[in-house]
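Inverse folding, one chain.
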């Protein structure tokens, strides 16, 4: 699937969840407090599935790679003019992105 197809599917999923929640409120057999808690729980589970989908993870990996690349380019390009503190900040950002990337790679490996 194309990226646009995944985004459309995600939007449709969210719209469907909202419509379902609205209908559930209208026809709810339980008191309001229990119904609201049930809806919150279901919405959280749905969000967790969407957030942890392979597409979302792949998008985050792409963002991390962009962050690493841009900060690395800036370090190389401006190495002589950057302060030690700024160099340390860029290196810390790169290291943080690499750690997040490794965590996502492990999560993807578990999905396979």
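Residues assigned per position:
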């Amino acid at each position: 699937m194309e990226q646009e197809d995944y985004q459309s599917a995600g939007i449709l999923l969210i719209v469907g969840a909202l419509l379902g929640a609205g209908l559930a409120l209208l026809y709810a057999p339980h008191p309001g407090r229990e119904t609201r808690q049930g809806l919150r729980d279901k919405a959280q589970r749905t969000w967790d599935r969407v957030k942890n989908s392979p597409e979302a993870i792949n998008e985050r990996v792409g963002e991390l790679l962009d962050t690493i690349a841009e900060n690395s380019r800036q370090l190389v390009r401006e190495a002589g003019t950057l302060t030690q503190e700024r160099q340390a900040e860029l290196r810390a950002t790169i290291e943080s992105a690499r750690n997040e990337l490794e965590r996502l790679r492990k999560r993807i490996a578990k999905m396979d």
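Residues 54-112 form one domain. The chain has a mean pLDDT of 77.
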